[in-house]
Structure formats: C-alpha cells, structure tokens
From TrEMBL:
Transmembrane intervals: none
Domain HTH lacI-type residues, every copy: 2-58
Biased composition (Low complexity): 343-357
InterPro entries: HTH_LacI, LacI/GalR-like_sensor, Lambda_DNA-bd_dom_sf, Peripla_BP_I
Organism phylogeny: Bacteria, Bacillati, Actinomycetota, Actinomycetes, Jiangellales
GO molecular function term, any single one: DNA-binding transcription factor activity
Name listed for the protein in its UniProt record: LacI family DNA-binding transcriptional regulator
Sorted UniProt keywords: DNA-binding, Repressor, Transcription, Transcription regulation
Region called Disordered, residue ranges: 337-364
CDD domains referenced in this protein's UniProt entry, alphabetically: HTH_LacI, PBP1_sucrose_transcription_regulator
Organism field: Phytoactinopolyspora mesophila
C-alpha cells in the first residue's frame, strides 16, 4: 500500500508538500504544476489516505449515521437515501445506515451503535412527512431530521420537509388555469401534516382566483390506496353537480378516481380532469392517460439533509443555529388535464345538471 513517502519520492517533493496537496490546502502555497505532479503520482501509485490516522488528528471520521424508521425498505422513499448518499460521497464522507423497520424501541440502541463508531453527525429519516419523537442523541452531535419535524420541546435539530402547501396550491392553480371552476378534492382520513397542508393549499388556490370553497366537493377516502378511494371517488363523480376536475391527495388515490371514472363511463381528461400528488414511480407514469401530479422532492431533501449536517460538523452556515427547510414540490404536467367542455354537468359554461356528457377523446 502506497504511503505519503512513496508519493513524495515519486513526485520529487517533500512529504509536507504531498500532505498539503492531498488535503486540499495547497492553494497559494504550492505551485500549480507541482500540485498536479503530486496528484498524478498519487493516482499512479493508487494512494489512499489512512482514514484512521486522519480521524485521530482531525477528530472526524467522515461518516454520517442515518437512522430510518422504514425508508430503506420502501422504494417510494428510497430516493431520499440516494440524495443523502450522493451528497455525503461528494463531500468525502460515508453514509452508514440503520433501518429500524418502524420499531421505535430499536432507535436508542441504533443511536448508541452509531455513536460508538464515532460518526460525525446523525440524520433521522422518516418514511413520510410527520411529527417525530426523536431518539436520545448526545447534545454535541449534529442532528438533522429528514422528512419530519421534531415533536414538542425536543433537542435542537434542523429539519427538512416537502412544501406540501405550495405543491397543492400549484396543482389546483393548474386546474383553474385550464378553465375549471368546480374542483373536487379527495383527501384521506388521517391526521398528518400532509393532509392539513394540502387542504390549506387547495383552499389558498381557490382564494387566489376568487372561487368559492364548496365543502361538498371535499371528501375523505378511508385510506391512502386505490381500492379504498374507489367508492369515495364514485360518490363524488356520481353527483348531478359533479366537479369538472378532481385534485387527489396522492397518486394512489388518483388511481381510485381513474377506476371510478371507468365504472361511470367517464373519460379522463375528456369528462373529468385529474391531478395527483407524489409522482410515485410506476403509478403516475403508468396510468392511461399519464397522470399530471406534484412530485415529492425526496432526492433533494436527502441531499439537503446531508449537506446541512456536514455544515454543522464544520460549523459553517451558522452551524449552531437551527435551520428549517420547506423543499419545493414541482408540478409534473402529463396528459390527465384538459379544459372543461360545454357538456359538463354542473359546469358554469355547460349544460344543465344531469345532461349526459360525452367526449370525443379516448375512453377508459
């Protein structure tokens, strides 16, 4: 295994010069041609730094511990891990993951295991946006909560969550700008931040465009999947004054709307436009027509969490201060939205309620 002395001999410089170059402290201190010669010699010899020796000197192991409740086993949220890992790797750090599988009693033991391995910082990742009870973490260890907010008066921690409010607002605004003025909203019957924030965003978009909030058009499915949403969507779309468009809490709920529309012989987007939320892989892009939706920024949140916790380690960006991030949720426009046609029952520009509506578009 090549050593600093070997690299120094190959480059014809001192060990101190090699150390400056390979630790990135050569700017203004070592000639550019010499620095290039050192790096080339290190590459040719396959030199790798002794991380144990470096950690003893700097008191950093260049590792980040990540504890997740069940993110690692959930393909839907796996891009959070990819974002965190890529950001850590780019900064020369390694991400060490422990997935507790949702067992909260394992979390304190997981923290202890990572602390014993001298990680520089911790990320606590939640499978979905929620208020979390954090495990016991040493006060001096930087901590970032990924896709969650610490509950109550817990130890100081930075956190990053999706901007559910403005994501929903953008989705409903897209429907309004397409010409819709009767927009239904299918929520799920859960008390979680995403439900409250997306409802607030829906109402904000209506208010922005001076449209009334109609409580009868806001309904709740018993669960967040297509099977549980079908019956709720069927009731909403069977109304004589049915909405011309439906905003859905999730892409899986939108699947339920697609099924209900098919049962009622309604086309999408010919008879009813649909927008989802999540941009879930193999769902939003697999429906026919493909679903317009709002993307959850999992990768960007993971990347932000890793960069932020490393900044805390380096005491950059006011490292001692808490920082919160609402990550933008971009609108992904596909084919499930169209202007309302004149035959819409209940439409302000359409036929009287109850008049059959047909579309020239392909039917589901």
């Amino acid at each position: 295994m090549a050593t600093l002395k070997d690299v120094a001999a190959a480059a014809g410089v001192s060990v101190a010069t090699v150390s400056l170059v390979l630790n990135g402290r050569d700017a203004g201190r070592v000639k550019a041609t010499v620095s290039e010669r050192v790096r080339q010699a290190a590459a040719e010899l396959g030199y790798a730094p002794n991380l144990l020796a470096r950690s003893l000197k700097t008191r950093q192991t260049h590792t980040i511990g990540l504890i997740s409740d069940s993110v690692a086993s959930t393909p839907f949220a796996g891009r959070m891990l990819a974002g965190a890992q890529d950001a850590a790797w780019a900064a020369g750090s390694l991400l060490v993951l422990i997935d507790t599988g949702g067992h909260s009693d394992m979390e304190d033991a997981a923290v202890q295991a990572l602390v014993q391995r001298d990680v520089d910082a911790l990320i606590y990742a939640s499978m979905y946006h929620r208020v979390v009870e954090l495990p016991t973490v040493p006060q001096e260890l930087p901590l970032v909560v990924l896709d969650g907010r610490p509950a109550g008066e817990q130890p100081a921690a930075d956190w990053v969550v999706p901007d559910e409010h403005n994501g929903a607002r953008a989705a409903v605004t897209h429907l309004i700008e397409a010409g819709h003025d009767r927009i239904g909203f299918i929520l799920v019957d859960e008390d979680i931040p995403a439900v409250h924030e997306r409802l607030a965003g829906y109402r904000q978009a209506l208010e922005d465009h001076e449209l009334p909030y109609i409580p009868e058009l806001v309904v709740r499915a018993p669960g967040n999947d297509a099977r549980m949403a079908v019956e709720t969507a069927h009731r909403l779309l069977s109304r004589q004054d049915r909405p011309t468009a439906v905003f859905c809490f999730s892409d899986r709920v939108a699947m339920g709307v697609f099924r209900a529309a098919r049962h009622l012989d309604l086309s999408i987007p010919g008879d009813v436009s649909v927008v989802g939320f999540d941009d879930q892989e193999n769902v939003a892009d697999s429906l026919e027509p493909e679903l317009t939706t709002v993307a959850l920024p999992h990768y960007d949140m993971g990347s932000w969490a890793a960069k932020r916790v490393l900044a805390r380690v380096e005491e950059q960006e006011d490292g001692g201060e808490q920082r919160h991030m609402l990550m933008p949720c971009p609108l992904v426009i596909r084919q499930s939205v169209a202007p309302p046609h004149s035959g819409y029952p209940g439409s302000a520009t359409g036929a009287p309620a109850g008049t059959p509506a047909r579309s020239s578009g392909s039917r589901r």
